[in-house]
């Protein structure tokens, strides 16, 4: 359907533009705002994929909680703008070996993913046209609490560990 | 081409556009009415007259306020981040309007028989409506955080950080009380939740969730008042403490946008409370078609309670506020959730 | 929309995230790039879940989001501790373990 394609390209453009801005912005606050824009694009894509619960969870958890945490840290640390002058006044591509190799590896990764995708069959058909989508919250909850019960409980332990760890790590040492 | 024009001018589309217009203009008018109501109610509670010069009984006071704000000079501190400084009030207002989108304010109606099939009085009916409201409330935090940061001033930054810390702390209790209602109603769609509250027990007690879940209502009310940064939880924008906190450096239309965002948030939280706990548009003596009358009445009552709270209670100090949210409301909401789960499972509530 | 489009988008986001991890000299931006990679993976999961009409794709995204939240919290705590030590967010400032 034409409107589906239009919406897909719209959300995809927002997401990729946000992602590119994250990687190129010098001001950390602008990076955080760009990634929030990318998350909204992704939420739109999830709605197109008939997963509304995941879309809303993405906004609540990622854009609403994790990024607020990032913003707090950026503001409390008064994070300095990434200043190339501090370490080296050159363009990223002339920087030391690590960055050059890293950049090359990222391009290599993109090329490899593209090559793998081009060799895969069955990608041209419309997504999930032969099967109905499962998007009801009841079904999600049922499977989450029966088949994935163990993983669910383990993540709760993970969250407690993360909370305790974060508090301990960020505490000022009393001298 | 003709098909598109036919679809655009179909009665359903026009009715939908009318509803969107009603919601948008209604929220703005509610904000203006709240400006006036706040000052009059405050005045009567403090045994004075309040505005009475502009228009009969001071009814044109909001217009005077808006005109004044319009003509004020737009200031921007030199060291402020220009883009973020302008973006912050936009985010606040956008989140405030967006939060009202999934809220229904009446039964599906056919506009006196003009439409073939009934149209819902709602901008968008998603079946995860409760979550969407929660998500947009999380987005509202950004307006405040960015306002505090972009102003590049001590008071603003402190006020912004404190206010957003308060908002995200109370979001937890807010979400828990929402989850409790969702558990009772077995659905996340606001229309379904309201429909479950139609009918009466013993013929005269309405089946509202406030009677089944008083604790959840209390938690929701406290969390809602804290979310909108209203007294008694308004430490971050208190004049005596922080010189107006995160909107210290704002003037004219940008300040007006923050102002409007706060009042519209109040209206949204009250509307959600009416839908979740007070039976939405169902009430005696008025058939469900005209239920929006009851909705507006209940909304007005809750908004009056908001104003009443502000001008009666002293404000919480910041650490008292945070400890209330984390140490009292959150455990209360969690225990309530557990009890409700047990009730639904074993007693089929 | 063909499945291929979603996978290409997911791969593109992952590559951008990887480039960010390698090329940014700011710890916060580094963590943001890692979050971007996790989101790319989420998109792939949901797309595949939709393709096979299974709900598992969406469920795995919850676990990914939870892990991302936990990792962001601990990562930022580490960033705060490091900042207190060296007053800098540049990963090149922390070189005491280099040979």
Task: Please provide the ordered H/E string of secondary-structure elements of chain A.
Answer: HHHHHHH
- CATH fold title of chain C: Helix Hairpins
What value does the average pLDDT of chain A take? 83
* Percent of sequence in beta strands of chain A: under 5%
The span between the termini of chain C is 52 Å
Q: Would you write up a description of this structure?
A:
The complex is a heterotrimer of chains A (175), B (349) and C (99). Chain A has helices at 2-24, 28-48, 52-76, 84-87, 97-118, 137-146, 149-170. Chain A is mostly helical and 175 residues long. Chain A folds into 2 domains: 2-135, NADH-ubiquinone/plastoquinone oxidoreductase chain 6, subunit NuoJ (Four Helix Bundle (Hemerythrin (Met), subunit A)); 136-175. The longest helix of chain A has 25 residues, at 52-76. Chain B is an all-alpha fold. Chain B has one domain. In chain B, helix 4 (82-99) runs parallel beside helix 11 and helix 11 packs across helix 12. The N and C termini of chain B lie far apart (53 Å). The longest helix of chain C is centred in the last third of the chain and has 31 residues, at 56-86. The mean pLDDT of chain C is 88. Chains A and C meet through helix 1, helix 2, helix 3, helix 4 and helix 5 of A and helix 1, helix 2 and helix 3 of C.
Summary, kept brief:
The complex is a heterotrimer of chains A (175), B (349) and C (99). Chain A has 175 residues and is an all-alpha fold.
């Amino acid at each position: 359907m034409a409107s589906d394609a239009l919406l897909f390209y719209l959300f995809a453009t927002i997401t990729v533009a946000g992602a590119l801005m994250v990687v190129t912005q010098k001001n950390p606050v602008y990076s955080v705002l760009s990634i929030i824009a990318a998350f909204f694009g992704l939420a739109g894509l999830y709605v197109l994929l008939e997963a509304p619960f995941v879309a809303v969870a993405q906004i609540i958890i990622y854009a609403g909680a994790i990024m607020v945490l990032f913003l707090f840290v950026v503001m409390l640390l008064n994070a300095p703008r990434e200043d190339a002058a501090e370490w080296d006044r050159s363009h990223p591509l002339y920087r030391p070996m690590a960055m050059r190799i890293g950049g090359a590896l990222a391009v290599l990764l993109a090329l490899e993913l593209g090559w793998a995708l081009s060799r895969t069959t069955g990608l041209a058909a419309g997504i999930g046209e032969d099967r109905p989508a499962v998007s009801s919250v009841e079904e999600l909850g049922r499977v989450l609490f029966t088949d994935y019960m163990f993983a669910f409980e383990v993540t709760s332990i993970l969250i407690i560990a993360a909370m305790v760890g974060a508090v301990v790590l960020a505490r000022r040492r009393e001298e | 081409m003709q098909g598109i024009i036919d679809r655009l001018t179909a009665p359903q589309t026009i009715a939908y556009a009318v509803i969107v217009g009603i919601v948008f203009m209604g929220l703005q008018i509610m904000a203006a009415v709240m400006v006036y109501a706040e000052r009059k109610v405050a005045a009567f509670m403090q045994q004075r007259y309040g505005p009475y010069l502009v228009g009969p009984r001071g009814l044109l006071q909001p217009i005077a306020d808006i005109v004044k704000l319009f003509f004020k000079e737009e200031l921007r501190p030199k060291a402020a981040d220009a883009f973020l400084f302008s973006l912050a009030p936009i985010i606040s207002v956008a989140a405030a309007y967006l939060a009202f989108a999934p809220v229904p304010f009446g039964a599906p109606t056919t506009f006196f028989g003009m439409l073939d099939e009934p149209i819902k009085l709602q901008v968008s009916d998603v079946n995860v409506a409760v979550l969407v409201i929660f998500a947009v409330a999380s987005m509202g935090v950004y307006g405040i955080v960015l306002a505090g940061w972009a102003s590049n001033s001590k008071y603003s930054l402190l006020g912004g950080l404190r206010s957003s810390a308060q908002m995200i702390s109370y979001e937890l209790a807010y979400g828990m009380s929402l989850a409790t209602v969702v558990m009772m109603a077995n659905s996340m769609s606001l229309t379904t939740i309201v429909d479950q509250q139609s009918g009466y027990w013993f013929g005269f007690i309405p089946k509202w969730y406030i009677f089944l879940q008083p604790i959840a209502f209390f938690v929701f009310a406290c969390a809602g008042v804290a979310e909108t940064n209203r007294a008694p939880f308004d430490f971050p924008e208190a004049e005596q403490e922080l010189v107006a906190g995160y909107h210290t450096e704002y003037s004219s239309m940008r300040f007006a946008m923050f102002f409007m965002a706060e009042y519209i948030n109040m209206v949204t939280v009250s509307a959600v409370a009416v839908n979740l706990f007070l039976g939405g548009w169902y009430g005696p003596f008025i058939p469900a078609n005209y239920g929006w009358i009851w909705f507006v009445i209940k909304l007005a009552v809750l908004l009056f309670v908001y104003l009443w709270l502000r001008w009666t209670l002293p404000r919480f100090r910041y650490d008292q506020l945070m400890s209330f949210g984390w140490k009292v409301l959150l455990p209360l909401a969690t225990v309530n959730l557990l009890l409700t789960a047990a009730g639904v499972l074993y007693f089929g509530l | 929309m063909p499945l291929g489009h979603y996978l290409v988008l997911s791969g593109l986001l992952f590559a951008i995230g990887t480039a960010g991890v390698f090329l940014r000299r700011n710890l916060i931006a580094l963590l943001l790039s890692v979050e971007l990679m996790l989101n790319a993976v989420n998109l792939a999961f949901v797309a595949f879940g939709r393709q096979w009409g299974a709900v598992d794709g969406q469920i795995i995204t919850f676990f990914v989001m939870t892990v991302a939240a936990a990792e962001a919290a601990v990562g930022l705590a580490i960033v705060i501790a490091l900042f207190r030590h060296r007053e800098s967010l540049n990963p090149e400032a922390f070189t005491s373990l280099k040979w």
